């Protein structure tokens, strides 16, 4: 897993990030202003600017903190010593836990607004997905080497498929308020990787990751 550095936030700064994170996950980055955060916290906009000079700086801090939490969760999965298939299931549950709170993946929401984001935020979003892709690629490679996972093509392409499928499944399940839709999609993805045919029903062919 690629390590993503993050500053440590406490007190008012941490509470600002908590409120802003929920707003991004429910409305999108362009769907709220500093005035919304100030009203939610009953503080002045000047107090917000004291901790985060502008919305772009706030956005970078949000991504950094979110990515660090995600990386910590994946490190915990690794340290548990689970089998590759169980690691993939644990990965999918990280998304499910967010959806159960009626939110979307923070970086998934930001990806939908990518063209409107400041450049530093764009780069941070890409680093998040690259780090996840790297972790998944390693799990897939180990799983295929052990004969526990089956897929055609490269582990990198399959890792990208998993991320795209989970983000898309969240997006579709959200308006229905139905996590069962997401869970069904996840089961199908994981089941396909556990069969000799691999995803899509095509017989998996050996390939280097």
Description:
The chain is built from 9 helices and no strands. It has helices at residues 11-27, 34-41, 45-51, 55-79, 84-100, 106-112, 119-145, 155-176, 179-193. The chain is elongated. The two termini are 16 Å apart. The protein has 209 residues and is mostly helical. Helices cover 69% and strands 0% of the residues. Residues 1-5 and 204-209 have low confidence and may be disordered. It has a domain at 65-201: Tetracycline Repressor, domain 2.
Provide the CATH superfamily of the domain at 65-201: Tetracycline Repressor, domain 2
Question: What structural class should be given to the helix and strand makeup?
Answer: mainly alpha
Count every helix, treating DSSP H or I runs of 4 or more residues as helices: 9
- Biggest sheet features: none
Nearest-angstrom radius of gyration? 19 Å
Proportion of residues in helical segments: 55-70%
Layout of helices and strands, plus pairs?
Elements: H1 11-27, H2 34-41, H3 45-51, H4 55-79, H5 84-100, H6 106-112, H7 119-145, H8 155-176, H9 179-193
Helix pairs in contact: 4-5, 4-7, 5-7, 5-8, 5-9, 7-8, 8-9
Give a short overview.
By secondary structure, this protein is an all-alpha fold. It has a domain of 137 residues: Tetracycline Repressor, domain 2 (Orthogonal Bundle). Helix content is 69%, strand content 0%.
Which features would summarize this protein structure in a list?
69% helix, mainly alpha, disordered C terminus, disordered N terminus, Tetracycline Repressor, domain 2, elongated, 209 residues, 9 helices
